[in-house]
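Input for the complex:
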Amino acid sequence: MTTALSPARTAGPAPMPTAAPGPGGPSLASARPDPADLDPRRALRELARWRADGRDAARFPYRAVLGHYRAVGKNAVAAELLTALRAVEPAVPAPAEPARAAARLLRDWLPQVVDGARGDYDSYLGTPVYASLARAGAEARTDVVITALLADLVAIEAATLAAAPAGRARTRAALRALTAATGLVSGGPGPAPQLADDDPAELVRACAEAVTAARQAVPSSVLHAVELTLTPTTRCHDEQMFIRVIQIFEAVFAAVARSIAAATEAVAEGRGERARELLADATRQVAGTSGVFRVLTTMPKDAFAVIRANTDGRSAVQSTSYRTVEQTAPELYRTLLRSPVEEGELSSVMRELDEAWGAMKRTHWGITMKVIGQVRGTGGTAGASYLREAAEARLFPALA
Ligand code: HEM
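Predicted:
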């Protein structure tokens, strides 16, 4: 017999529960769930067992918890499960790796599932997990993390293609972005995707190949972290894409912020060539977002309305990395004026970064106009008019 368990928070409008899984409809995880995932009791039982067995972070029942979250949507998760997760305290790990890494991952991940109605942008996308990955160094460099995020996105989109052929445009765009990212990580151009054929089965096959190649190029620790950080608030298929796209942009913002900080240091020390390399890499990262925007433009308006209704207070206007880029760029220019590095040595690369950053902001504004028009943002700004003005602000106004 089942006991009715209460949702943690009243969800917004239900996402088209009768439609086929795919764009504009429910996610596969919520439309065809494992019946045991609809009920939180499996996760509650596994959590109780985990506590009784010594709270070893490496054995945390992620699968059972995420199974329920993804089947019902984070905003409809049972309050009892939320309470149990808020009480989770992993045992103090042995000082050696990998026990420490497992405990760190669990601590980084928990804010994403216990935030409930108090959630913000960071808990929406799992910022602490990605910040730890960035600190992990070369094995989780930005291109690697982006490849893992795209691989997951392509796998999700391809899985719904048979039932929802309308998803082809998005799947193709995501596949193109994945192939480019895998090429960067594995040092080659990557296998050319078979995109000419309009047959969905061909597309699914090309996706499977690309996902396999990408996953082989990414360390399992990164794949695992990426796998855990998908907790949509709704049952909407499109929210999964939205979260992956946001996570990719955040990885780029964080990389650009790090490059600007390191370039400022290099300039202060008179190492102009090093600063030039760092800024050129930042420009490459920002310019690379154009392929990801193509994925985002496949967002149906109605689906985004459901996502918006469920993510109030979780706006990217809160993004610390984005803000850091905008706030620290002027300091780079001021440092350049006082340093032995000639301004002319860096002015063109700085201008290129500024142009790429400005183009990214203008594209974002254009997509916002198409998807929500002139309504207010979830971060409380006027929305599109705020973004149009913000897109005009330059990183290095003196070079414009
Ligand atoms: C359909 C997609 C999207 C729409 C309709 C949209 C809409 C908006 C709106 C209305 C704002 C103004 C702030 C607010 O009140 O919330 C905003 C800000 C922002 N959005 Fe988006 N957004 C979308 C996708 C994205 C994605 C994928 C990212 C990637 C992280 C992103 C990053 C940002 C950033 C960084 C800001 C702050 C801009 C600033 O303060 O200059 N947005 N967005």
